[in-house]
Amino acid sequence: RRPDRSAISVDSDEQGGGTDYLNKIIAHLRARSRYDLRCYKKSTLARRIQRRMRVRNVPSLEGYLQVLREKPDEPDELFNDLLIGVTSFFRDPQAWEELDKKVLSGMIKNAPENGAIRVWVPGCSTGQEAYTLAILLFERIEKENRPLEIQIFGTDVDSKALEFARKGVYAESVAEEVPADKLNKYFGRSGQNYVVAKGIREKVVFALQNTVSDPPFSKLDLISCRNLMIYLESDVQARMLRLFHFALNEGGYLFLGSSESIGKLSEQFKVLSKKWRIYQRTGALARPDFSYGRMHKDDKDLSRTSGMDTGKRDHRVGDRHAEMANQMLLEQYAPAAVVISKTMEIVYLRGPVDRYLRFPTGELTRELSRLLREGISSPVRAAIRKAQKDRFSEVQKQGQVKRDDGYHPIDITVRHLPELPDQNDLLLVTFSDVHHHGPIPAPSDPVPADESVVRQLELELRTTKDQMAGTVSDLETANEELKASNEEIMSMNEEFQSTNEELETSREELQSLNEELTTVNNQLEEKVDELETANDDLRNLLSSTDIGVVFLDSQLRIKRFTRSSEEVIRLIPGDIGRSVSDMAHAFREFDLSASVKEVSESLQPKVHETESTDGKWYNIRILPYRTEKNIVEGIVLTFMDVTKRHQEIDDLLEQCTEKEQRVEELKKKLRESGVGPL
Q1: Which entry of 177, 378, 432, 644 is 20 to 30 Å from 253 by CA?
Q2: Which is nearest to 229 in space by CA: 500, 516, 31, 510?
Q3: 153-178 per-position pLDDT tens digit
Q4: Are 227 and 504 in contact (CB under 8 A)?
């Protein structure tokens, strides 16, 4: 039965328990290996755990957790499977050429006299990347003729991989990865394998280290961390990059994999090669977070809930007089109101809205901003924007609306309406005139015409200022929206980058699986070759003897026979698969079928000599067929022609009989001659 893939979909709401079991698996593995896998991407963990589930033929995460607890070797197998050690010498040759040209050359030239070049390779796996750097640095030092010391630190959490790296012994396939000139210079042969030269191995120190939780190396000139961070969560990647920035010397270099980047730390690293992910440390030294061990937060969505009592109103109407009175009061004292949607489209109108809105001829529009009278467009839009930002406040603004007889001061109020099942984000905009209760000027003391003009100009100036302020506010809002759009685009870019990293991870896993399949295929080819050789040897051995051999399976059916046996029991290729009781033979006074069944039951060999109908004698041996594990899986029959031996015995017996007769005749003659008994 194949495991259910959905059983380990940690992001699925329907598989809510999957996350709990996944966390339990991580915790169990952490207790066994002392390595915290919570920093790994959940998708990577799910894929690798799913792979082990298929190997173990376990259909669910709960069942696999039980296997982890019951099988002592399974945590180690899962841990080794999670450490995807896909690496090689001079991986992405163009990237190494770019690094040699843009980084190593200047690094060697600018290094202090008799100084040291310090390099760190986190996640070095089996050491190919560290040795590649050592070879390139050796060549650069020889080319520049600089007496510099090389210190390369290769670290990993896989102790077995580090032990392999320390030996520096690699399969013959490295000849395809390393250029011929470097292979001849920096590698030696050991049987079918290649061994890294001692001078190179002495410059590389391999150590067990967890890059995420253990303290880093310091005062480094170069960090080469390729295709390690693609397996980690984004926050852990950012933390590691800050750690690398701290560990590098001023002007030090960072070499990442093809699917990795510095993310938001562009101010701390200068891009030297965007394509091949080569960066140089810039900016002031910032001490990173040294609280080792990843801090985890329980992501709980805190949502506000507002319980507004929208109980059913009693719509029972009194008498008609009360209804008419209510209607008159609403028309007389209630302000003009407009209900709009979040896109400023009018949903409902109430009261004398014509005093504040202008309905032009032509095609009818429902957009509030196009219907507002002159003078209040800016304050209304500003009030609506402010209300949309804060859902729990009431926004008030003042403005001056222009009607036929001039500008009139008004109050503008914007508030949110309670959400309904079919409508949400509705705003109520109300307009009300501001009434002046001051003394009315006497007719005999009219206001001078000049003063009236000045007041009108001041009013228009204030209106213009308000409109300018509204325009500036609109511009600021547009800038904020552009900034928000830019952040969304950057977020989408990061998501695309994360997807690319996951694809790279999948490619790495496929490459690892392909290498495993290639290894298994090579082993199978070797086994097939050995099997063919053994079959050829066995066929020639049986053909070179005159012994007839018949192999029977556990059901006493014919599996195989030699040509010599065809003369004894008259077999043809079509007899394969037939029972031993169906075999026709020419033996006298010998029940072959009964003897075979007797040996099959007793497992004791049986030897018998018998004569055939054509006068030949055969030595018949019946033995159990035993495998290499001493398991009986059938019977072996051998037929050896011993006719010649019987003939020789008969000839000897005849010769003895003739001699006895001659002796008797001689005795008789002696007695007759009177000699007496001898």
Answers
A1: 177
A2: 500
A3: 999 988 888 999 999 999 988 899 99
A4: yes
